[in-house]
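Per-record layout

source: Microbacterium istanbulense
name: Prephenate dehydrogenase
length: 374
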Amino acid sequence: MSDSTGTRATKVASRLSGTVRVVGAGLLGSSIGHALRAKGIDVALADASPAQLRLAIDYGAGRAAAAGDDPAVVVVAVPPDVVADVIEQELRTHPDAVVTDVASVKLEPLRELERRRVDLTRYIGSHPLAGRERGGAISARADLFIGRPWVVCRDEETRAADLSLVEALALELGATPLEMTPEEHDRSVALTSHVPQVIASLLAARLADAEEGALRLTGQGLRDTTRIAASAPELWVQILGANAAPVVEILEAFADDLREVAGALRAPDAAGARRTLADAIRHGNDGVERLPGKHGQNRRFETLVVMVDDTAGQLGRLFGELGELGVNVEDLRLEHSPGAQFGLAEISVEPAALRGAIEGLEERGWRIAGNTND
């Protein structure tokens, strides 16, 4: 048996029991539904849009919620501007359920609920660090949360049993629960998610009126730095507005950095100008080095770039022959140059495996376009 996402639905031991009610049948809500159903868990879906709800049900994310449902957990997956309203309603309607939400901003909804004097004993805010550029039930995936951090915001009133339910939810979805305060969470996502969205969008906006000749020179670097610029403006207006203060703080510091670099470039031969530019690039190197890699580790890998003909089965053959060589692929990035009949596969491997991978692939006829030892 499998659902419409292609995920095999099997009855396996679950950390959750009973019904999970999901309010909001968009990307996150439907993805939660698909993943839980694959574990044999009853998922009751609700959405303010009947069309969205029917679409999510048709895709197999769950069944329509019924008046007699008695959920153990309620997951609120609605836009930021209505999340406080829905949390309040769900706490009132389901007095025995633990209510969590997956909004990307945690402090503002909490403050709004506190202003309304809502009893928040059974509410635990949370946020999975997962998503896609395209939203809606049609884009939902059962594996969306696998390996992703899932922030859980507890406080001194949080009951241990309730906390365990929310953490069990994250674990069922393949995520890794992390405890943070709402303030810590919002400052963190301002730096790692919200500001990058603004910067990527501003950079991509420069392309709107660019000459076609310039766009033909597009490389992977530009694609990487503008990928998230395809996100929905309506959603991001809400997110940025709800987390404005920490976003502004980082953007203002970033603007100062840009002014310093621009000043150095206005007179690149002036004393200290080259050092300013070099320090800017070096500090970027330092930041990249701190990003967690595979399995959350800070280990660094070597890379080789393999030219792959743009024909069916070539990438599979490449992986198969790397396996025969005993080389584990730690990471992969593909680049297709406009008009070219081949792609470039940038493959990350353990440093000790680099030379053997290059020699073995060349013996098998693969063309190596470069590596980190060049």
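summary: The longest helix spans residues 182-205. The CA atoms of residues 80 and 239 lie 6 Å apart.
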